[in-house]
Amino acid sequence: MMKKLPVGISNLREIIENGYAYVDKSIFVHDLEETGKYYFLSRPRRFGKSLMVDTLKEAFEGNRRLFQELWLENKRDWEQVYPVIRVSFGQGIIGSRSELEEKIAEILYFYEQKFGVVSDFKSISGRFAQLIESVSMKYNQRVVLLVDEYDKPILDNIIHRDRVEEIRDGLKNFYSVIKDSDAHLHFVFITGVSKFSKVSLFSGLNNLVDITLSPMFATICGLTESELVCVFEEHLKGQNLDDIRRWYNGYSWLGKKVYNPFSILNFFREGLFRNYWFESGTPAFLLQLLMERHYPIPGIEKLEVGAELLGSFELDNIFVETLLFQTGYLTITAHEEVLPGEVLYRLNYPNFEVKKSFTEYLLTCFTQQPAEMKKSIRTVIQCLRHGQPDALKEVFYSFFAAILHDWYRKNSMAAYEGYYCSVFYCYFSALGLEVRAEDVSSHGNMDMTVLFEGKAYIFEFKMSDHASGKALSQIKNKGYAKKYMADSEAVYLIAVAFSRDERNISGFEWELAQ
Predict the structure, then answer these.
(1) CA 369 to chain centre
(2) Edge-to-edge strand order for the sheet containing 331-339?
(3) Label partner for 460 (CA 20 to 30 A): which of 29, 325, 392, 435?
């Protein structure tokens, strides 16, 4: 019988007792406990962090029956039971430090009642420290502390500078208790989306081991293909695995690639290829940062960064690349140690779902014209299919002309070449076409190439009135077309110039490569 799908369920007891399909990750409980004490894990939203935290809770509380026939069942001393304090900021939105402290007070009160201990302190830090010590003393056993979505109060308020700094300080005050409670703690596991520096939130907790990019724990969240095929065999019948892989596989943290669990479970339930993960949350702050920095969106596909940009950040110094990686819009596709201790990481979209939905969302935000793109889809496809660049020019000229003046008044992006390149790039990517940004040839980098039904369209962009002739000469002189001549039935060279004053295409020239 086909097992039920645990869509949106992060409670191990419910999954096991109600017969839901479950991918056994219990080996990681053993590995974590055997190799250390203090851990930190960063993964994107809806990636299975909360289920992993719940699995740890059930194991440390000694609930062996939930692990029957799982890897951990015969690998653990189930007589060894620990009191568990689980802190989660996953539910609701906290909008101020007072709300944060009220939430923490509720959590502390719950565990004081659960374990039958009394607090003598009114301060958050005092109550938390006393809770840990009192529970440890009462049960003659050190405490397991699990913190889920540790950074959500910060991320919920990150565009409000004054508010977010107060909340950060409140969390720092709370987390500072962990270091001084070492004697009463057996195991600590902290998860979240972002990684703030130890100075920022975990002052003094220098032994907190970050396993985000540890190959040993690369698949602690998400589904490997072997896990997918094994556990969801019945759900895969009649499906094209290549298409599923293209849409939802591809996340990597220096180990095997994994599928986004939220998307793949929803796909099995609905039977339709859709942007399930992307639609479950809006990257508002990320968009704001991209626009403020005039970030050239096509360059996202060619990012090479050092470890410092994949690591922690401060509110005063947030890098776009760091945020794109930590929130799950980019993943590691390759890495190379260029010098001892110096590693370069290559980043790109993890899969088709993210690239298509992210670029469509950006296009809407860049132009405020979601309907215009949809109206012209059929025309654009016909232009590409039949080799009609002139008609393509008319589509994009009308598209830019439809953008409201008020949008330009509020945004300075239109003064930059990168804005217009980004619109072209996002438009074609949002349609799901094969788009190669900053495409490399032996003679240089092309701004953009679109491949469609055996044809190649090479684009060069210039931010200068009537500079399209110069751009076309550049394409021809550098021999960009040679890369595609052998494998394409036709190669089109297209040069586009933009006017700052008119905020539209000012020059458009093309040739068919010979």
Answers:
(1) 25
(2) 303-306, 342-348, 331-339
(3) 325
Per residue in 78-113, pLDDT (tens digit) is 999 999 999 999 888 899 999 999 999 999 999 999
- The tokens describing 323, both together, are 């945020």
pLDDT tens for 318-343 read 888 998 999 999 999 999 988 888 89
Give dist(CA 7, CA 263) in Å, integer: 9
C-alpha–C-alpha distance, residues 126 and 215, integer Å: 38
Q: How far apart are CA 373 and CA 432, in angstroms?
A: 13
- What is the CB neighbour count within 10 angstroms for residue 103? 18
Rounded Cα distance between 168 and 160, Å, is: 12
DSSP 223: B
* 48 Rama class: left (phi>0) / alpha (psi -120 to 50) / beta: left
Which strands make up the sheet holding 434-441, listed edge to edge? 434-441, 444-452, 455-462, 490-499, 504-512
Q: Which two tokens stand for residue 405?
A: 């003046």
Tell me whether residue 101 is exposed, middle or buried, using C-beta atoms within 10 angstroms of its C-beta: 0 to 12, 13 to 18, 19 or more. Answer: middle
Give the residues across from 144 on adjacent strands.
Answer: 84, 187
C-beta separation of 102 from 124 below 8 A: no
User: Are 84 and 147 within 8 A, CB to CB?
Assistant: no
- What is the C-alpha separation between 298 and 341, in angstroms, rounded? 29
What residues contact 508, with CB distance under 8 A and at least 6 apart?
Answer: 389, 390, 393, 397, 468, 494, 495, 496, 497
Q: What is the pTM of this model?
A: 0.91
Integer angstrom CA distances of residue 391 from 427, 490, 512: 16, 17, 15
Sign of CA dihedral 313, 314, 319, 324: positive
Beta carbons of 97 and 169 less than 8 angstroms apart? yes
Alpha-carbon span 335 to 255, nearest angstrom: 11
The answer to whether the beta carbons of residues 177 and 128 sit under 8 Å apart is yes
In a 10 Å sphere around its CB, with 0-12 CB exposed, 13-18 middle and 19+ buried, how is residue 448 labelled?
buried
Length of the chain: 514
